[in-house]
Amino acid sequence: MKMKNFIISLVFLFFIISCSTSNQVKNESQIPVAQQVNEKVQAKDFKIEVNYANPMGGKSIYLSYGYDLTLRNDSAIAYLPYFGRAYTAPYGGGEGGIKFSDLMKDYSATPKNKDGEWTIKFKVDTPDYNYEVNMDIYSNGKSTISVNSNQRQSISFNGEMVLN
User: Fold this and answer.
1) Residue 78 three-state SS
2) Are 145 and 69 in contact (CB under 8 A)?
Protein backbone atom coordinates (compact mmCIF):
# COMPACT_ATOMS: atom_id res chain seq x y z
CA MET A 1 0.00 0.00 0.00
CA LYS A 2 2.82 2.37 0.90
CA MET A 3 4.54 1.64 -2.40
CA LYS A 4 1.34 2.35 -4.36
CA ASN A 5 0.84 5.72 -2.59
CA PHE A 6 4.50 6.57 -3.19
CA ILE A 7 4.23 5.84 -6.94
CA ILE A 8 1.00 7.84 -7.26
CA SER A 9 2.60 10.77 -5.41
CA LEU A 10 5.67 10.58 -7.64
CA VAL A 11 3.60 10.57 -10.84
CA PHE A 12 1.49 13.48 -9.56
CA LEU A 13 4.62 15.46 -8.63
CA PHE A 14 6.16 14.78 -12.04
CA PHE A 15 2.95 15.97 -13.74
CA ILE A 16 2.88 19.23 -11.74
CA ILE A 17 6.54 19.99 -12.45
CA SER A 18 6.20 19.33 -16.19
CA CYS A 19 3.13 21.59 -16.47
CA SER A 20 4.76 24.49 -14.61
CA THR A 21 7.93 24.23 -16.73
CA SER A 22 5.99 24.40 -20.01
CA ASN A 23 4.14 27.52 -18.85
CA GLN A 24 7.41 29.27 -17.96
CA VAL A 25 8.96 28.52 -21.35
CA LYS A 26 5.84 29.61 -23.18
CA ASN A 27 5.58 32.96 -21.37
CA GLU A 28 9.27 33.79 -21.73
CA SER A 29 9.40 33.10 -25.48
CA GLN A 30 6.32 35.11 -26.44
CA ILE A 31 6.90 38.79 -27.15
CA PRO A 32 3.73 40.81 -27.81
CA VAL A 33 3.13 41.53 -31.50
CA ALA A 34 2.88 45.30 -30.90
CA GLN A 35 6.31 45.28 -29.25
CA GLN A 36 7.83 43.33 -32.18
CA VAL A 37 6.29 45.81 -34.64
CA ASN A 38 7.71 48.77 -32.68
CA GLU A 39 11.18 47.24 -32.50
CA LYS A 40 11.28 46.45 -36.22
CA VAL A 41 10.02 49.89 -37.29
CA GLN A 42 12.47 51.70 -35.03
CA ALA A 43 15.35 49.55 -36.31
CA LYS A 44 14.28 50.20 -39.95
CA ASP A 45 14.59 46.47 -40.55
CA PHE A 46 11.37 44.74 -41.62
CA LYS A 47 9.53 43.09 -44.47
CA ILE A 48 5.89 43.53 -45.48
CA GLU A 49 4.40 40.63 -47.46
CA VAL A 50 1.70 42.02 -49.72
CA ASN A 51 -1.47 40.02 -50.40
CA TYR A 52 -3.88 42.54 -52.02
CA ALA A 53 -3.42 45.24 -54.66
CA ASN A 54 -5.92 48.10 -54.83
CA PRO A 55 -5.61 49.91 -58.17
CA MET A 56 -7.20 53.36 -58.58
CA GLY A 57 -9.72 52.30 -61.19
CA GLY A 58 -10.77 48.83 -60.17
CA LYS A 59 -11.47 46.17 -57.60
CA SER A 60 -9.02 44.73 -55.11
CA ILE A 61 -6.88 41.99 -56.58
CA TYR A 62 -5.73 39.04 -54.49
CA LEU A 63 -2.01 38.42 -54.97
CA SER A 64 -0.26 35.11 -54.74
CA TYR A 65 2.78 34.59 -52.57
CA GLY A 66 5.97 36.43 -53.41
CA TYR A 67 5.25 40.19 -53.44
CA ASP A 68 6.85 42.29 -50.73
CA LEU A 69 8.41 45.56 -49.61
CA THR A 70 11.50 45.40 -47.40
CA LEU A 71 13.29 48.15 -45.49
CA ARG A 72 16.90 47.56 -44.43
CA ASN A 73 18.65 50.51 -42.78
CA ASP A 74 18.72 53.24 -45.47
CA SER A 75 17.53 51.06 -48.39
CA ALA A 76 14.14 49.99 -49.66
CA ILE A 77 13.59 46.87 -51.76
CA ALA A 78 10.28 46.40 -53.55
CA TYR A 79 8.89 43.64 -55.68
CA LEU A 80 5.27 44.65 -56.29
CA PRO A 81 2.88 44.29 -59.21
CA TYR A 82 1.34 47.30 -60.94
CA PHE A 83 -2.22 47.57 -62.22
CA GLY A 84 -3.17 50.94 -63.63
CA ARG A 85 -2.40 53.60 -66.18
CA ALA A 86 1.16 54.61 -66.94
CA TYR A 87 1.51 58.14 -68.34
CA THR A 88 5.00 57.49 -69.67
CA ALA A 89 6.82 54.25 -70.38
CA PRO A 90 10.52 53.66 -69.89
CA TYR A 91 12.67 53.27 -72.97
CA GLY A 92 12.77 49.61 -73.97
CA GLY A 93 9.58 48.79 -72.06
CA GLY A 94 11.12 48.34 -68.60
CA GLU A 95 10.55 45.36 -66.34
CA GLY A 96 6.94 46.08 -65.40
CA GLY A 97 5.61 46.25 -61.90
CA ILE A 98 7.13 48.31 -59.11
CA LYS A 99 10.65 47.06 -58.62
CA PHE A 100 13.47 48.86 -56.91
CA SER A 101 16.38 48.31 -54.60
CA ASP A 102 17.66 51.79 -53.81
CA LEU A 103 18.45 54.25 -51.07
CA MET A 104 15.51 56.00 -49.42
CA LYS A 105 15.21 59.80 -49.38
CA ASP A 106 13.25 61.92 -46.92
CA TYR A 107 12.52 58.95 -44.64
CA SER A 108 10.23 59.58 -41.68
CA ALA A 109 8.61 57.21 -39.20
CA THR A 110 5.96 58.80 -36.98
CA PRO A 111 3.93 57.04 -34.27
CA LYS A 112 0.22 57.54 -34.94
CA ASN A 113 -0.97 56.86 -31.40
CA LYS A 114 -0.10 55.12 -28.14
CA ASP A 115 -1.25 51.72 -29.44
CA GLY A 116 1.93 51.18 -31.50
CA GLU A 117 0.68 52.26 -34.92
CA TRP A 118 3.13 53.96 -37.29
CA THR A 119 3.10 56.13 -40.41
CA ILE A 120 6.21 55.77 -42.56
CA LYS A 121 7.03 57.94 -45.58
CA PHE A 122 9.97 57.91 -47.96
CA LYS A 123 10.95 58.53 -51.57
CA VAL A 124 12.92 56.36 -53.97
CA ASP A 125 14.34 57.50 -57.31
CA THR A 126 15.03 54.84 -59.92
CA PRO A 127 16.32 55.36 -63.47
CA ASP A 128 12.76 54.90 -64.82
CA TYR A 129 10.45 56.23 -62.09
CA ASN A 130 10.37 58.36 -58.97
CA TYR A 131 8.26 56.82 -56.20
CA GLU A 132 6.74 58.26 -53.05
CA VAL A 133 5.76 55.54 -50.58
CA ASN A 134 3.40 56.02 -47.63
CA MET A 135 2.81 53.17 -45.19
CA ASP A 136 0.51 52.74 -42.23
CA ILE A 137 1.61 49.89 -40.00
CA TYR A 138 -0.78 48.79 -37.26
CA SER A 139 0.05 47.24 -33.89
CA ASN A 140 -1.06 43.78 -35.10
CA GLY A 141 1.47 43.87 -37.98
CA LYS A 142 -1.05 44.54 -40.74
CA SER A 143 -0.23 47.39 -43.10
CA THR A 144 -1.43 49.56 -45.95
CA ILE A 145 1.09 50.76 -48.52
CA SER A 146 0.39 53.56 -50.99
CA VAL A 147 2.78 54.07 -53.93
CA ASN A 148 2.61 57.33 -55.86
CA SER A 149 4.54 58.34 -58.95
CA ASN A 150 4.25 61.26 -61.34
CA GLN A 151 4.53 58.81 -64.27
CA ARG A 152 1.78 56.37 -63.14
CA GLN A 153 -1.56 56.27 -61.38
CA SER A 154 -1.35 55.67 -57.65
CA ILE A 155 -1.86 52.17 -56.31
CA SER A 156 -2.16 50.81 -52.78
CA PHE A 157 -1.48 47.44 -51.24
CA ASN A 158 -2.55 45.57 -48.12
CA GLY A 159 -0.11 43.29 -46.39
CA GLU A 160 1.34 42.06 -43.15
CA MET A 161 4.71 42.48 -41.45
CA VAL A 162 6.80 39.33 -41.21
CA LEU A 163 7.45 38.72 -37.51
CA ASN A 164 10.12 36.41 -36.01
Assistant:
1) strand
2) yes
DSSP 116: S
Per-residue confidence in pLDDT tens, the chain, 164 aa:
666 665 666 555 555 555 554 444 444 346 788 899 999 999 999 999 999 999 998 899 999 888 999 999 999 999 999 998 887 776 655 667 899 999 999 999 999 887 789 999 999 998 888 999 999 999 999 999 999 998 889 999 999 999 87
Which residues touch 105 (CB under 8 Å, ≥6 apart)? 122, 123, 124, 125
Distance separating the N- and C-terminal Cα atoms of the chain? 52
Identify the DSSP state of 28. H
In this structure, the dihedral spanned by the alpha carbons of residues 99, 53, 105 and 160, taken in order and rounded to 10 degrees, is -110
Question: Using an 8 Å Cβ cutoff, are 61 and 53 in contact?
Answer: yes
Q: How far, in Å, CA of 31 to CA of 161, rounded?
A: 15
Report the candidate in 100, 95, 51, 96 with the shortest Cα–Cα distance to residue 76. 100
Determine contact, residues 153/54, Cβ cutoff 8 Å.
no
| Residues 6 or more apart in contact with residue 68 via CB below 8 angstroms | 47, 48, 49, 50, 78, 79, 80, 159
Element (H, E) at 41: helix 33-43
